[in-house]
Design a protein that fits this description.
379 residues; alpha/beta; D-Maltodextrin-Binding Protein, domain 2; Helix Hairpins; three-stranded parallel β-sheet; 13 helices; 46% helix; elongated
Length: 379
């Protein structure tokens, strides 16, 4: 028995083990957490107009986009030299693709076509696409029609509901005491309605007999005065606003179908106009855009909200040009680098870090957008 045990142990020791029975050793992949280092001096090109990019008297640059870049570059310890590209947006994108610039800074829209030739950082600002239109004076009929907007109609509806309720309350409270309300429901309701309406328009023609009737009529008089004040305020403010705005032909996206709109040449706005079904007419300056609108060669100017708002704010004839109340779509701005550039990773981290400090973002928006800053800075 002893020899059998030894033989069994010897057999186990030298038994062949198949490769399938051996568990593979775990493969450990080392992931470097070392940040991408950018040692060279970056060549930065700037493109765009105020309030995002503009030149200062000393030759430096300012604007919302450039301030973002300055803060992020300082945070990341980047060295750079900057110059205006003096090119259109599309030409500036192509210059980055060729390697003429390491970074492009400005209100550069992120589009699919551009992403095929350059790399974008994560968006640092969300803008709106808006329209400037030329307002026309309203006719007398249009002014009068504006009196009956939603608010005014809602007030009128509430008034008639209250009139119905108080007429019935007054009728039932007076029916047992006054003969004029004892001739049947229809006749009595007519008299009660006339009493409540006349008390609203002038002195009460009928002195209630019951105490409850006096109380109900007193409450009605108070409510009618409040209603008159509210209705007058709504109608006045609506008419004032409507007359200041004038007549606007384009009030929805569907109104752009087949309409000629002025857009900045070689920008993403050309593609956006086509997406909306409009016919883009290119311009090279703000004066050209306004001229196209005045002469009727374009029905609207399509562009980014803040640039358009600033364009008409600085005009003496501002009352003739208005921002359409609708937002056509959001438009994301980002920094641009050549394809495969390691700087994008650093910029993304810098933008995320800036996002964590909302007060800094709000201060930048307040500084460069000022009174134009009406619907918040968004990432």
């Amino acid at each position: 028995m002893h020899y059998l045990i030894m033989l069994f142990a010897f057999t186990l020791t030298f038994a062949e083990v198949s490769p399938e029975q051996v568990a593979p050793a775990p493969v450990v992949t080392e992931v470097s957490s070392k940040p991408v280092e950018i040692e060279k001096v970056l060549k930065v090109g700037v493109v765009g107009n105020a309030p995002f990019i503009y030149e200062l008297s000393n030759g430096d640059f300012g604007g919302l986009s450039f301030r973002y870049w300055e803060i992020i570059a300082k945070d990341l310890g980047l060295k750079y030299k900057v110059e205006r590209t003096n090119l259109s947006f599309d030409q500036s994108i192509n210059a980055v693709a060729r390697g003429d610039y390491d970074i492009l800074v400005g209100p550069v829209s992120v589009t699919f076509d551009r992403s095929q030739v350059v790399d974008f950082s994560r968006p640092y600002f969300v803008n709106n696409i808006g329209l400037v239109v030329l307002s026309e004076p309203l006719s007398f009929f249009e002014v009068m029609l504006s009196m009956f907007g939603d608010a005014a109609l809602n007030l009128l509806g509430a008034f008639f509901v209250l009139l119905f309720i108080f007429t019935h309350l007054f009728y039932f409270s007076e029916r047992r005491f006054a003969e004029r309300y004892q001739g049947g429901y229809v006749r009595g309701i007519q008299d009660a309605c006339w009493t409540t309406v006349s008390s609203f328009l002038r002195d009460v023609l009928y002195d209630p007999v019951s105490g409850m009737g006096r109380f109900i009529l007193s409450i009605w008089l108070v409510l009618s005065v409040v209603f008159m004040a509210a209705f007058t305020a709504v109608v006045t403010s609506t008419m004032t606003y409507t007359m200041s705005q004038g007549h606007i032909e384009i009030v929805s996206k569907s109104d752009l179908e087949g309409v000629r709109v002025a857009v900045a040449a070689e920008t993403s706005m050309v593609g956006y106009a086509k997406d909306f079904g409009a016919v883009p007419i290119s311009y090279t300056s703000s004066d050209d855009a306004l001229k196209l609108l005045r002469e009727g060669k374009a029905k609207a100017i399509l562009g980014n909200y803040y640039e358009l708002k600033l364009m008409i704010t600085n005009l003496d004839e501002e009352h003739s040009f208005l921002m359409s109340p609708m937002n056509l779509r959001n438009d994301e701005f980002a920094f641009v680098a050549p394809e495969g550039s390691p700087i994008i990773r650093k910029l993304d981290s810098g933008i995320l870090h800036l996002q964590d400090n909302q007060k800094v973002v709000d201060d930048i928006c307040a500084e460069f957008l000022g009174p134009l800053h009406t619907h918040g800075c968004e990432f």
